[in-house]
Every structure is written in C-alpha cells, then in structure tokens.
C-alpha cells in the first residue's frame, strides 16, 4: 500500500494576542496543551489503496500461493492411505452378522475377518486409525458429560463425580469411574492385522498401542488416583461405566503405565472430536529397521472383535491405514484451495490491471469540485 | 389556623406569617436546604443498580444470566456474561458515583453559605440550609439571594433594590425591584422588623420566573404582591447597601430549583438508528435461534433418539427444541454485545475531550477554551443540515464603534495610502494618538488622523458636530474616580457616539435635570438643558434644546437620515447631496448611520414654545399627540452638520465561516430580535445576503392572508414550474415504527434567493395551516433572516424544520433569549465568555467565537461522525462474523448449542482481544486531516446524507459478515477434515478445532480492522499488535499445565495451544482464511476508488501524491469583502426601546443628589426607574 508520512506543522491558534495573554507562562490559563495527542496531530501513516500497491499485492499473493498449493497437493497425494469400512451394514460384508446380532448387552464377543490387499507398499511408520461417521461426539450434552478432576486423579471427584456426568454418574449407588457419557461410550472394538504370505500363512503385524495420545494428555491431564500403585485398590468402591465390559483398572493389566485413566486408547477417545465424522489413532506400526517396507504389498486380513454397535444411528466404522507427511494426514483440500486462491488472485490482478488502464485516469485529483 | 396543613405536593396556596416559625413550620414547607444529589451511602448501590437495570441492554444481560443459571439451557458458563456485565456496571457506577460526589460537594457548599437571619429579635448569622419559610433575612451588597424573598425594605430611596439576574435568565443588565411602601417603612430597624407580622398568601411553588401573585395582609389591610416585590434565589444584589426580605419559597420550592433538572435528554440520530437496528437484530437473533431450534427438533427426532446409547438421556424432541432455542439465545447474544454500548460512550467521551483540548477553538482574549458540555452528541455534529443563529453577540460582538463620519461634506475615517487607495484597517494599523486629551477613553480607536487635526485646528463645523454628540443623548455618566468616566448608555450606539465625542475633545462630564456639563477642548462648559425631545420609533430622531453660557439657544437633533433630510433648511441641499453619497457608502459597508443637524432658536419663540410645551405636557388627554405636534413644529428648518457611521462589529471570521458552512451545504438561518434594517445589514456584511442574488424577498405583512400571498409569490418566483402542493413523504420511524413522520422534500431552485421575514409575519406563518408554506419557501432560499422574533418563535422555527425536514439542526446563541431554540435544536451551542451564562448553561457545546463553529462541525463533527460510523460498521461486522460461525457450527453438532470457540475466548473476545484496537480506530482515525476538511467543505456532506452508516450500510455489513463467517468456518472445516498431526496424532478434536477457528477469526477481524484504519498512529499499531500478542499470551497461559492443575474444571483446554500451533497446516489454514476474508474487500475497495471515487478518495489521493503540504497548498486567499454599491440605506440605528428622556428631566431620581455628580447607585436607580409602574397598589 502506498502511504504518505507527514507531520502536520501548522500554526496554532488564530490569535496573535495569545502571546500577550499567556505571557511567559507564569499565568496559569485554560489554554489547552499543545501536544500532538490532544491536538490530534499524532504522526501517522495513511495507507491508500492505489494501483501501485494493490496490483503487485495480488500478483505476489498469486505467485506465493500457487507453489505452496502445488507443494501441499503433491505432499498430500504422496501419502498412502487405505480405508476399510467394516460396519457390516451390507449383506456381503464379512461383519454383517456381527452388526446384526450385536448390542451393548450381549456378552458373547463376535468376531469377523475382513480381507484386503495393498497395491503398493507402505513405507516408514504406518498409522492405524479407526474412524466413525455420524457419531456426534461434539454434541453439547455429550461434550460436557465428563469430570476432568476425576480423570486427573482427584480422589474426592473419584468418590463423588461432577454432576455434569449425569446420568452416568453413579451405578448401583457407587460412583462410576470414569464417569460421564464420553467414557461410557468408549470405542471397544479390537482390531488386529495379519499379513497373508503368498504361501498362505498369517503373520500378525505388531501394533504398538502406546504413543498414540498427546503427551500433555498422557502426562498432565490424565492421572490415576494415588499415582500408579495398585489400581484395584484405588478404584475400590467405584463402579465401572454401564456399557463397559471390564473396569477401568483392567483396560491394560499387563502394563501399569497404560492402565486405568492413563490408558492411551481411553485418552484418545476422551479427546472428543469436533465433527461428527472423525478418525482416531488406534495403533502405530513402526517401520522396520531394514529397508523393507513397513507394510509390503500383498494380502492382509483385518480381524475385528465387533463390540461397538453403530447400526442404530446409521453410523459407519472404518479402519484406516495411513502414512503421514510434514503436513499431517491425507487431505488434498488445502493444496487445491491454495492453488485456486493463488490463481484467482493472479487473474484478479490481471483484470484489475486492465480496468486500471482503461479507467485509471478518472481518479484525478484535479476534478475535485470546489 | 393550624388545621389546614397542606402538603407541598398538593399545595394549592401558600400561607405564611412573618416571624412566626411555629405556624410556618406546621405547614411543613421545605426549608432552604437543597439537594441535587441522587444517592447517599446506603442507597447508592441499590438505587444505582436499579437505574442501570432499567436500561434495556443491562436488563437483557441480566435475563441472559438467569437463562444461564438453568442447567438444561445453559450453553455457556456464567462467567461469559457476568464478567462483561460486572465490568460495565462497575464502570457506570464509578462514573455515577463521582458525579454524585460532586453534587454532594456543591450542595454542601451552597447549603453552608452564611446569611443574617432575624431570630427572636436579633440578627444572627445562620447557614442557608437552616433558613425557614417566614424568616426575615438581611442581604448585603453583592450577596446572593438566599431564597425566594418578598422584599421588605432597602437602603435605597423608594425602597428599590438592584439585582443581577445573569444566573437566572442570562440578562446582564441590572433589574430593579421595589418594596411596598408599607414594608419599606420598616427600614433597617431590627425592632420594627421583629414585630412585623404580615401574613402572606400566594401561589404554590412553580417555575414561572416572570410571574408572581399573592397578597400581604398587615394590620387588617391587604396589599397585592407581584413579581416586582420578589427577589428570586439565584440573583445577586447589586448597588444596594442592604435589604431585608421575607422568605417565601425555600430550597427546592424556589423558582430557580423548580426550573432545574428538566432538560430534555437529547439523543442522536445514530442512537435512534442504533435502537432500531438493535431491535431488528433481536428479531434476526430470534430467527436464527428458531432455525436452529427447529433443526434441533428434527435432529433429536431423527438421530438423537437413535443415539441414545451414547448420549445422556435427553428430553423429547419438541421440548429439546424449546430448550435449544434458549441455549442459542445465550450463545448468539454476541450479535448485540453489551460492550457496544460501553464503547460508544467511551468514543463519544474521547471525541468530547478532543473538543475541549482543541487549541484552535481556544479564545485567548478571555481565556475560554471550547467545551463539550454534553458528551453524547458528538457524531451528530457531523450531520448538521440547518444552523439557526442568533445575531447579537453571536455573529456580532455587540460592540459598537464609531467608525466613520461625514462632516460638512467631507468624509473621515477612511485610511488612504499615498496613491489614494483605501488601506485595509486592522489591528496592526497605527491608531490615532489621543494623549493630548487626558479625559479620552483609552479603548477608543480611530485611524484617520485628519479628523483630529481639524478638530484641534478649531474647525467650527467639526466642533459643532462633536458638541452635538456630547449634548444630544440620554447617556448617564459615572465618575468613580476623578477623570475616569464611565458612560451608562441605554443603547450601545449612543454610547459609541458619546465616547467618540469624548475622545475628540468634547467630553460629556455630568448632568443634572437642568444642565449638562461638558469639557470642550479642555474647557468646562455648562449648558442649560431646556428640553429633551425624546426618541421613539415613529419619530426616529431625538433632539435637545440647550442654552449655552453665552445665552445662545440651540436645538441639536440626530436621527435617521430620511427623517432628518425632510426637516432641513433648503439652503443645505448641496450639502445633503454630498452627505447622501457618503451615507450610501457607509450603508454599503454595513455601517449604522445617523444624520446630525442643529438650529439656533429665537429666545422669544422659545419662551412661547416652552409655555405651550408645559401645557401639553400636563394635558389630561391626547398628551402624546399634542407633544408630537409641538416637537414637529420646532424640529424644522434644521441645518445639516453631517452624519455618523457606527459599526456593529462582526466577530472575527464570521463571513468566512458562513461561506465555508454554506459550501458544506449547511443552511444558515438568522433568528434575531433586532430590527429588520439591522438584521439585513448584518446579513449583507456577513455575506449571507449578496447583491448578486436574484432577489431578496421581504415578508412583512400584517394579516394572515397577506403573509400567505407573499410567501406564495416568492415561491412561485423561485420555481415557476414547481408544484403547488408540497411533496410530503410520509413514513414511520422510531422503535416499533410508532412515530409517524412527514418529510417535506427539497425543491429545486434556479438561482439564489434570500428571504427576510419579520416577527409579526412569522407569527402568522407559523400557524398550523401556513407552516408548510413557510417551510417550503424558506427552504428554497439560500439565506433566511427572521427579525424581531421572540424567543418562543425562535424555538418554533427550529421545531418546524425538525418536524418536516427530518434534518439535524443546530442552534447557536449567546443570550437568555436563545435558550429556547438551543434546547429545541438537536444541538445547542452557546457562545461563552460573555457575561450571561444562561445560553451556555443550556447548551451542549460552548465556545467563545462564532468562527469556531466551522472547526466544530467541519473537523470535530466530521471526524466524530466518521469514527462513530466506522466503529459501528466494524463492530457489527466483527460480532456478526463471530456469531455466524456459531450458527454454521450448529449444523455439525446436532444443533446442540455447542460453542465453536473456547468459552474463555467468548468471554474475552469483545472485552480484551478486540476492545482496544477498535477503540483506537474510533478515537484516532482521520480520513483526511483538518486542513483538507477546511479546504473542501464538501467533505461534510456525506454526514448530512447519512451515508456512512445507514440501514443499507448495515445490510452490507451483515452480508460481509456472512461471507467472512462462511470462510472462517468452512475453510478450517475442510482443511481439517479427517486429517491428523504430523506425528499421526489427533488434531481434529473439538479443542484444537476451537483454537483454530477462534485464531482464524481473530486474525481475520484484526486484518479487517487494519483495512478500515485510514490513520495509522503508533497507538493503533501498538493496540493491534498488542491485542494479538495478548491473545497468544492468554491462550498459552490458559492452556498451560499450571492453570489446569489449579482450576481443573475451568481450564480443560490444557495443551491445545502447544499441540496445535506447532502444526504447519494449522498456520496455512489461518493464512488462507485471512487472505480469503480480505481479498474481496481489497478488490472491491480498489475498484470503487478507481471507478466511482468519492470526494474523500480524491482528497485522500491528492494528499498522498504530495508529500509536503506546504508545497502544494497556496495560502488561502484572503477574501476581501466586496464593497457594495447599493442604494440600500441603513435605517435609524438606535435600539428600539424608548429613551430615557422623561427621566432625564423628571428630576425624581435626583432626590438625594445635591452634588452635580451622580453616585453609581443613583445612576442605576435612574436607569431602572423607568421600569417601575404603578407603585404600591393598595387593594
């Protein structure tokens, strides 16, 4: 933008008689102070939208945005992503039976295997997500139905959870730990991945279940009451959430660092999604030390322990395998948006330039009527 | 009669007895303590809160607070409403509290003034507040009148007292009051006063200053009481040693207090527009809430019911929709944020301070800065369409100066250079030295030395000329110290003439009823005064007949030229011709002229005439006619001496100011109590009337029909093919459109016209059936001058224009007679620094000189309007954008009234993150600086047309916000959809999304603010960057471990800032949203400036192309006032009141003056004396 800098240096006051009156300043009079602030003469920069500033700005923005957009688009396209919908709403789907028969109250686990194949190898670390659709984790009644103090290991809140947790606050007159609707609806499908060797043998792919939550959540926001000593004792007198099959201290009995409130699957679930369609990190498949791809191309089987009912609200369940880049997961939108905006800018710049050439002389100061 | 106790509120008649406290107390009249304060320590909090919650906005927020306390509805925690509400309430409370403290202090000071009261036969000093009705108080010279008193006795002859009523009505001349003779006899005898037991019955307390009715019963006789006997609280005793008074009304019952506190509360048109907008915003809010509530109902029915396994059990769909409606009312309340009202007040206050601080509106001569007495009307100053101005003291200085004269065919007073060219007379020019005359008035100034030379040479005509001026008048001299003369003249013209004579060596020294003593060129001469042939409006001349010490009888006469010329001796015809030329020249310059003539009288004839004069003077019937005939007879065959020209001095810069204002398309109407000739003259001298005008219509008819005819004729002349019927646009305005308004459209006129209408015609024209005719005709004229109007008519004219033009009006005046129009107009401006304060006290703005009006309007008004409009546009943009994002989010969260931003962000957005940048925009912004504002007064017109902020502009703002909110919600939505962090972890969780959305919003609105700012001071930069930094500082603090661990439930966003803001795609999204928000605006504005530039754009562009102002700008050409060569003749310029002639000769006033010099108090007695009629009427 073009600008003009000036400091108004104007005569002050109309009256030469002021000298006689104010004298040497000994007489205190009511004459206002001569400060730039009070006289509204603060030095200022006055930007004006002129062709000299606006048009280059448009071109520059266009020239910057298009490469960024291309970079983003290419990056996003290079990310390998595989998505498998295992909801089982379809008759042909392997999980159809599970989805039909299953409800919260059934005790018998239902399992199904979904075969799939990779057309290209996944290199580097591969992230395994579960995705839910049409699931309103951002509903107000849902979002507020938790007690952060309880999750932070506050013993008082453990015994008497916040009212926000109602109606999942107590069960059998015992406080629920963890209380609230979010915890109650914890995603509890188990997903396992097997590689089918060309020779037909199944190799389980090692899935790492730690390191999937935010560091701050794992170490600050979520804490077990009374540190990490015997959780069974700590949680005595509390009740498990009604939908849960096991208590909170049984989430991962093998690893005290991943059990109770600091179980990472639980933490990840507790970070509610902003939108009704979301994905959450489930497991990480670390890259192999040698040069072989983490997931070579070939046949795989996804073993699902189908616990989580979504059919009632027409939800979908997905398993996603994805690599990542510096800009996160696969999302071509930003790249396309940058390219579009950059092009529009450039185009607008040209259009404005033409208009300016044609009509620019109109704005000539000489024709100010006076 | 102790039984007839009447309570003050229902008081029908006041009854009291002097010196009888017991009886008077039984009536429970209020005592003399006044209380203007509203609160005391205990009532402050409840009362003030009660008052504050009467305001719609505060009540609304209280309502929201109640809603939030219902858990099912509460969509936001309580603090989002409480924090702003408490802040606003406490700020207002602090202001109200300090105001009230001041009032308490003032009350205390006034109530504790001391006055002497007669208690149990002794004079005691008591506090004002302890004075009771029925007490007798003693006042001394220069004391304030304690309460409304019945004057009992005074130190002055005839039981007169002199009071100054400046505080009450703004009139500075002394007024006289006179006690009844029967009470006057009490004099200052404490004994007699203590035994005085008169009973007073009078009207109940009221606010009429000019009327009082009551009776005094004393010793079985009843005397009527009227206003002449009453001293009102607020007056000051002058020139009176002492007086005694009986307290009739005390404290709150006094007429002064009854007149206070009922000033109508003025509101600006922006205020009114804002009210309408706020109301429609409420409607809009309800529609949004309704849509979302219906959405919620549908969602609950279709999805929520099936979702029951995961969601806490809700209620049935219709009830859920109902609750959601209120939840959204809470969330979307930001469309009408409480901070809007606070900010508006702060901006107005700031702009008022600028007015107070402006050195260019400071008048050094009497040390008066401009003052914004009202802080709520600033932006209206930028929208003025009509100015109503008083003349005397506003356009003119009310100072007459003897400027020029023509003596015996030779004109004096002009300053010529060597080539014979006129030289402009200004303050720098050398003045004539009067040091040879030790009685000269040092303040008198004259520039033509030749006149002094001729008078000192002893030129007989010139001497006769000044002798006439020193003898023929009714001025009273005052000589406080030897040689220090003060003249008390009834009209300033006469004072100017006598002062001129004094300086030219003919010093009027003293007078008795029979003689006038003059020092003529250092020589004391006493003339015998034989007769004063006084001035009146018909005669338009006055004469004196004097006998010189040598015994020569002479008649000296001065008067209107036309009248004098009719009575001249035919031998003067040559001289008359030359003098007429001079008179025309003087009149052409707008001077007020008089012709002077004399004649020697035969002593015998004089004897005869005097006899007949005595007979006529004592005649019972037709005295006036007989006297007139006698005067006519003797004032004949006069010999012309010459003429004088007195300048009714315009204030500095008046013509230039008027020209500037009319360039700004502001119409100026002069409303004056002066005579038509005077008003016209001033019209010409300040360039409102011009010779080149097509026609100046003069409406001065005596009947309603004639007035109508004259108005119609004028209108038809201006638009021969105009419609007969006025185009009246009827519409409705105001809240709920309850007010019906009629607007008379402006009609096009070819050419320039002006109208002069006198008060008499105006009275007819203002009648219901003719007012539109008057308005149409007047509005077609460039200039309208109404002369001889009463204060009420002034207000009526203002009301007329307000009613039918829907335009913003400003009234400017200095005197008590302007108060009505100052109060009637949208903006009232008082000229301060004069002695009367009434106009200033009822005004909204005050300054010392009329010329500051152009700065007030063209600079301060324009800026204030611009700033307020920018503020409102921006504020609505910001908050609508904020709110709409919530609206869009409703569609993605099951219409559950989940907020899209962090609750703390919602609390702090208006109060912390955006408050200061917006304020700095609306306190510092200038599109063009003051210099350009003066250079192009046309820059003012957008304000008159409401262009910067109107319903239309508001709709644009809403659409703009709609676009921005779409960008600000859907770009983050799309960019974050199903994506993850660069370490594969979560980023589309609710908290991260909230952070992203709110940061995008804040950055986008900050950039928009930057685009709207035309004047980037360091403050703007500081506040803008400061606010953004504060935002980041606050989120990092609030989302920190420490805050979470201390207050776990209030700060659940722990870690969000750290985990989000290190992601490149988050920043890329912010960049994208910012660019997308700004880009269309920049393109649109650029195109607008390119294709349809406004005058502002042009001036701004011009200012920028020339970096140094000094280079581009030629010095403003000084407009030399064109000399008119018209035959227009200024009329006889005496003020229109009857002179003092009868008093001069009555001798009554001189009862106690054995010496030749009059004492000051007697002198004022003399002046005031003639106002007294019907003394001591006994019923």
UniProtKB/TrEMBL annotation, chain A:
Residues 1-32, 146-171 are annotated as: Disordered. It is a multi-pass membrane protein. It is found in: Apical cell membrane; Cytoplasmic vesicle, Secretory vesicle membrane; Golgi apparatus; Membrane. Keywords: Cell membrane, Cytoplasmic vesicle, Disulfide bond, Glycoprotein, Golgi apparatus, Lipid transport, Membrane, Transmembrane, Transmembrane helix, Transport. The chain crosses the membrane at residues 48-74, 333-355. It holds the Pfam family CDC50. GO terms for cellular component: apical plasma membrane; endoplasmic reticulum; Golgi apparatus; transport vesicle membrane. Belongs to the CDC50/LEM3 family. This is Cell cycle control protein. The lineage of its organism: Eukaryota, Metazoa, Chordata, Craniata, Vertebrata. The gene is LOC112256556.
Automatic annotation (TrEMBL), chain B:
Keywords: ATP-binding, Lipid transport, Magnesium, Membrane, Metal-binding, Nucleotide-binding, Translocase, Transmembrane, Transmembrane helix, Transport. It is found in: Endomembrane system; Membrane. Pfam families: Cation_ATPase (PF13246), PhoLip_ATPase_C (PF16212), PhoLip_ATPase_N (PF16209). ATP binds at residues 390-392, 494, 535, 558, 592, 672-674, 788, 794, 817-818. Its EC number is 7.6.2.1. Residues 840-1094 form the P-type ATPase C-terminal domain. It comes from the Eukaryota. One of its GO terms (biological process) is phospholipid translocation. CDD domains: P-type_ATPase_APLT_Dnf-like. One of its GO terms (molecular function) is magnesium ion binding. It is a multi-pass membrane protein. Mg(2+) binds at residues 390, 392, 814, 818. It catalyses: ATP + H2O + phospholipidSide 1 = ADP + phosphate + phospholipidSide 2. Its cofactor is Mg(2+). Gene3D superfamilies: Calcium-transporting ATPase, cytoplasmic domain N (3.40.1110.10), Calcium-transporting ATPase, cytoplasmic transduction domain A (2.70.150.10), HAD superfamily/HAD-like (3.40.50.1000). Residues 17-82 form the P-type ATPase N-terminal domain. The chain crosses the membrane at residues 276-299, 319-342, 871-892, 904-924, 953-973, 993-1011, 1023-1046, 1066-1087. Its main location: membrane. The active site is at residue 390. The keyword Transferase does not apply. Belongs to the cation transport ATPase (P-type) (TC 3.A.3) family. Type IV subfamily. NCBIfam families: ATPase-Plipid, ATPase_P-type. This is Phospholipid-transporting ATPase. It comes from Oncorhynchus tshawytscha.
């Amino acid at each position: 933008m073009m600008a003009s800098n000036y400091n108004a240096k104007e005569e002050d006051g109309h009256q030469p008689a002021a000298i006689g009156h104010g004298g040497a300043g000994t007489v205190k009079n009511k004459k206002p102070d001569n400060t730039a602030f009070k006289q509204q003469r603060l030095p200022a920069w006055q930007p004006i939208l002129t062709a000299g500033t606006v048009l280059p700005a448009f071109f520059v923005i266009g020239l910057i945005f298009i490469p960024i957009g291309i970079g983003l688009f290419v990056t996003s396209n290079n990310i390998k992503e595989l998505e498998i919908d295992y909801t089982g709403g379809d008759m042909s789907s392997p999980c159809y039976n599970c989805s039909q028969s299953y409800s919260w109250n059934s005790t018998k686990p239902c399992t199904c295997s979904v075969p799939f194949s990779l057309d290209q190898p996944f290199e580097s670390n591969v992230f395994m997500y579960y995705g839910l659709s049409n699931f309103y984790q951002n509903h107000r009644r849902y979002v507020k139905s938790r007690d952060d103090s309880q999750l932070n290991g506050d013993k008082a809140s453990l015994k008497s959870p916040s009212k926000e947790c109602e109606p999942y606050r107590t069960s059998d007159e015992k406080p629920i730990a963890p209380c609230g609707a979010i915890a109650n609806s914890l995603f509890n499908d188990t997903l396992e991945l097997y590689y089918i060797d060309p020779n037909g043998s199944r190799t389980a792919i090692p899935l790492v279940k730690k390191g999937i939550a935010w560091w701050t959540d794992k170490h600050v926001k979520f804490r077990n009451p009374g540190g990490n000593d015997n959780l069974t004792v700590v949680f005595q007198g509390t009740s498990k959430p009604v939908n849960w099959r096991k208590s909170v201290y049984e989430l991962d009995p093998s690893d005290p660092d991943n059990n109770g409130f600091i179980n990472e699957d639980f933490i990840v679930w507790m970070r509610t999604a902003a939108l009704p369609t979301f994905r959450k990190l489930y497991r990480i498949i670390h890259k192999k030390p040698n040069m072989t791809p983490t997931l070579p191309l070939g046949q795989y089987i996804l073993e699902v322990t189908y616990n989580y009912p979504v059919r009632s609200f027409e939800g979908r369940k997905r398993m996603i395998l994805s690599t990542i880049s510096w800009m996160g997961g696969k999302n071509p939108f930003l790249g396309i948006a940058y390219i579009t905006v950059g092009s529009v800018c450039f185009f607008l710049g040209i259009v404005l330039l033409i208009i300016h050439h044609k009509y620019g002389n109109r704005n000539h100061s000489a024709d100010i009527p006076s | 009669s102790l039984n007839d106790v009447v309570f003050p509120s229902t008081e029908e008649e006041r009854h009291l007895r002097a010196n009888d406290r017991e009886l008077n107390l039984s009536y429970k009249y209020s005592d003399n303590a006044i209380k203007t304060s509203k609160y005391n320590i205990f009532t402050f909090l409840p009362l003030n809160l009660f008052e504050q919650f009467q305001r719609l906005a505060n009540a609304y927020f209280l309502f929201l607070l109640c809603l939030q306390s219902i858990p099912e509805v509460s969509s936001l925690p309580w603090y989002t409403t409480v924090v702003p509400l408490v802040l606003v309430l406490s700020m207002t409370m602090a202001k109200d509290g300090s105001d009230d403290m001041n009032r308490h202090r003032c009350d205390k000071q006034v109530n504790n003034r001391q006055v002497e009261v007669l208690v149990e036969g002794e004079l005691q000093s008591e506090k004002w507040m302890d004075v009771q009705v029925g007490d007798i108080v003693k006042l001394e010279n220069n004391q304030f009148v304690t309460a409304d008193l019945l004057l009992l006795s005074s130190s002055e002859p005839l039981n007169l007292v002199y009071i100054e009523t400046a505080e009450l009505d703004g009139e500075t001349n002394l007024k006289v009051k006179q006690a009844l003779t029967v009470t006057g006899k009490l004099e200052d005898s404490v004994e007699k006063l203590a035994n005085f037991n008169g009973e007073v019955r009078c009207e109940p307390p009221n606010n009429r200053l000019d009327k009082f009715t009551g009776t005094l019963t004393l010793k079985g006789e009843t005397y009527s009481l009227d206003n002449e006997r009453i001293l009102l609280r607020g007056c000051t005793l002058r020139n009176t040693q002492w007086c005694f008074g009986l307290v009739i009304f005390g404290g709150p019952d006094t007429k002064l207090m009854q007149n206070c506190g009922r000033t109508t509360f003025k509101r600006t048109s922006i205020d009114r527009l804002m009210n309408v907008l706020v109301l429609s915003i409420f409607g809009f809010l309800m529609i949004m809430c309704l849509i979302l509530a219906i959405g919620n109902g549908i969602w609950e029915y279709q999805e929520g019911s099936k979702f029951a396994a995961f969601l806490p059990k809700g209620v049935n769909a219709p009830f859920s929709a109902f609750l959601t409606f209120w939840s959204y009312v809470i969330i979307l309340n930001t469309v009408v944020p409480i901070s809007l009202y606070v900010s508006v007040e702060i901006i107005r206050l700031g702009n008022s301070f600028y007015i107070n601080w402006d050195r260019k509106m400071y008048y050094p001569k009497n040390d008066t800065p401009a003052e914004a007495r009202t802080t709520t009307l600033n932006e209206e100053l930028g929208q003025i369409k009509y100015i109503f101005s008083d003349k005397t003291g506003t356009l003119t200085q009310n100072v007459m100066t003897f400027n020029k004269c023509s003596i015996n065919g030779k004109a004096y007073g002009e300053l010529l250079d060597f080539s014979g060219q006129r030289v402009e007379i200004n303050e720098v020019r050398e003045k004539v030295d009067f040091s040879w005359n030790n009685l000269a008035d040092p303040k008198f100034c004259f520039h033509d030395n030749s006149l002094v030379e001729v008078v000192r040479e002893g030129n007989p005509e010139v001497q006769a000329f000044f002798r006439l001026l020193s003898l023929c008048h009714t001025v009273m001299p005052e000589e406080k110290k030897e040689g220090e003369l003060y003249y008390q003249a009834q009209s300033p013209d006469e004072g100017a003439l006598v002062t001129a004579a004094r300086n030219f060596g003919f010093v009027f020294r003293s007078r008795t009823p029979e003689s006038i003593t003059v020092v003529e060129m250092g020589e004391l001469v006493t003339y015998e005064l034989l007769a004063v042939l006084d001035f009146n409006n018909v005669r338009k001349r006055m004469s004196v007949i004097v006998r010189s010490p040598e015994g020569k009888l002479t008649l000296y006469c001065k008067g209107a030229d036309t009248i004098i010329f009719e009575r001249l001796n035919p031998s003067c015809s040559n001289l008359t011709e030359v003098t007429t030329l001079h008179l025309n020249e003087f009149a052409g310059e707008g001077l007020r002229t008089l012709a002077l003539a004399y004649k020697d009288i035969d002593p015998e004839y004089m004897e005869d005439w005097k006899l007949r004069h005595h007979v006529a003077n004592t005649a019972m019937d037709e005295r006036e006619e007989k006297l007139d005939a006698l005067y006519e007879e003797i004032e004949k065959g006069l010999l012309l001496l010459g003429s004088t020209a007195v300048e009714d001095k315009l204030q500095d810069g008046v013509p230039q100011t008027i020209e500037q204002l009319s360039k700004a398309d502001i119409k100026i109407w002069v409303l004056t109590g002066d005579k038509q000739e005077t008003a016209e003259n001033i019209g010409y001298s300040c360039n409102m009337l011009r010779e080149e005008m097509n026609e100046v219509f003069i409406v001065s008819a005596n009947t309603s029909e004639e007035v109508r005819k004259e108005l119609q004729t004028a209108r038809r002349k201006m638009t021969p093919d105009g419609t007969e019927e006025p185009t009246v646009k009827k519409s409705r305005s105001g809240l709920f459109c309850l007010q019906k308004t009629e607007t008379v459209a402006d009609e096009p006129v070819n050419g320039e016209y002006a109208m002069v209408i006198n008060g008499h015609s105006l009275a007819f024209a203002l009648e219901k059936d003719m007012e539109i005719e008057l308005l149409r005709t007047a509005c077609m004229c460039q200039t309208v001058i109404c002369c001889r109007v009463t204060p009420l008519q002034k207000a009526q004219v203002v009301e007329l224009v307000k009613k039918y033009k829907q335009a913003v009006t400003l009234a400017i005046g200095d005197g008590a007679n302007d108060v009505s129009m100052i109060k009637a107009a949208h903006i009232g401006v008082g000229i301060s620094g004069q002695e009367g304060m009434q106009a200033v006290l009822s005004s909204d703005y005050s300054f010392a000189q009329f010329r500051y009006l152009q700065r007030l309007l063209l600079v301060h008004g324009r800026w204030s309007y611009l700033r307020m409009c920018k503020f409102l546009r921006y504020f609505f943009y910001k908050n609508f954008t904020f709110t709409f994002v919530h609206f869009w989010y409703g569609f993605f969260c099951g219409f559950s009234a989940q907020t899209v931003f962090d609750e703390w962000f919602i609390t702090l957005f208006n109060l912390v993150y955006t408050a200061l940048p917006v304020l700095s925009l609306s306190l510092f912004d200038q599109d063009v600086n003051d210099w350009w504002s003066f250079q192009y007064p046309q820059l003012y017109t957008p304000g008159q047309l409401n262009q910067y902020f109107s319903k239309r502009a508001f709709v644009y703002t809403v659409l703009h916000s709609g676009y921005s909110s779409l960008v600000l919600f859907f770009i983050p939505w799309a960019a974050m959809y199903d994506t993850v962090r660069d370490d594969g972890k979560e980023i589309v969780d609710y908290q991260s999304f909230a952070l992203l959305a709110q940061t995008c919003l804040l950055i986008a609105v900050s950039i928009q603010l930057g685009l709207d700012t035309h004047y980037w001071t360091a403050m703007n930069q500081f506040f803008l960057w400061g606010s953004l930094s504060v935002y980041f500082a606050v989120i990092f603090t609030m989302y920190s471990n420490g805050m979470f661990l201390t207050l776990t439930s209030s700060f659940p966003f722990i870690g969000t800032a750290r985990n989000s803001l290190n992601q490149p795609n988050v920043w890329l999204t912010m960049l994208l949203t910012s660019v997308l928000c700004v880009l269309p605006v920049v393109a649109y504005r650029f195109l607008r400036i390119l294709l349809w530039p406004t005058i502002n754009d042009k001036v701004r562009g011009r200012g920028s192309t020339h970096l140094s102002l000094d280079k581009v700008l030629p010095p403003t050409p000084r407009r030399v006032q064109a000399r008119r060569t018209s035959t227009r003749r200024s009329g006889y310029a005496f003020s229109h009141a009857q002179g003092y002639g009868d008093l001069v000769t009555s001798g009554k006033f001189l009862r106690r003056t054995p010496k030749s010099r009059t004492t000051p108090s007697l002198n004022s007695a003399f002046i005031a004396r003639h106002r007294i009629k019907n003394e001591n009427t006994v019923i």
